Known about the structure:
Layout: H1 5-9, H2 18-32, H3 44-51, H4 55-67, E1 71-74, E2 78-81, H5 86-93, H6 101-117, H7 119-125, H8 128-139, H9 152-166, H10 169-188, H11 203-212, H12 215-225, H13 227-234
Antiparallel strand pairs: 1-2
Amino acid sequence: MEPSPISTSLSAIDTRSLVDKVEANLVGLLKQRKLKVGDSIPKEIELAETLGVSRTVIREALLRLRTMGLIESKKKKGAVITSPDVFGIMSKSINPYVLDQGTLKEMFELRLVLEIGMADLLYHRITKKDIEELYAIVAGEPPVTQYHVFNIEHEIRFHSKLYEITGNETMKKFQKMLLPIFDYVHNSGLLKKQSLLKTFVSHKQLVDLLENGTPEAFRVGMRSHLENHFARIFDQ
Length: 236
């Protein structure tokens, strides 16, 4: 069916509120002026005149930028550009109880990919003291069998130490943000019951690989270690 002349001449209506538009324009203005972290942003009155809106609208838009961590108030400098704590902001809004099952499983998969992929960082930055601390952590774990069921406390202690060893603060924040999700998924019934595995690499064996193996061997070992998790996610 051919579109009518009227429908072809109409354009989509912009349904964003004025504050939405000003917020987007403010971000664009800051980029245009090439402001960087620590630089002061223009005063409210200047912004209102530049964008042709009231100071009330500007104030509301700036409040949003503050909430997102893009600006903050400094004594004698007014509002300045800041580097937002992205994961800190996200953690305030992520509640595993209100995330759908698909999102929860994808977040869980992301954790598995990160831990397999951190091998090179670990080998580059791990110290003898780190190895000793990892052995101390796994010393208190029960013997591993083919029927091993992951203990969430042991998992958190061991894997949190791995994130710490990477020295990557963003990864550490990300892992901390996701811990409640891991705990929830483990205990929510979303994952199918663990079954007998033919192979399994324990935490202790992973430490042995970190001490004497290679990044590639560690990746293979971590993949095997997490095989229970992968099976429970994908084989449903």
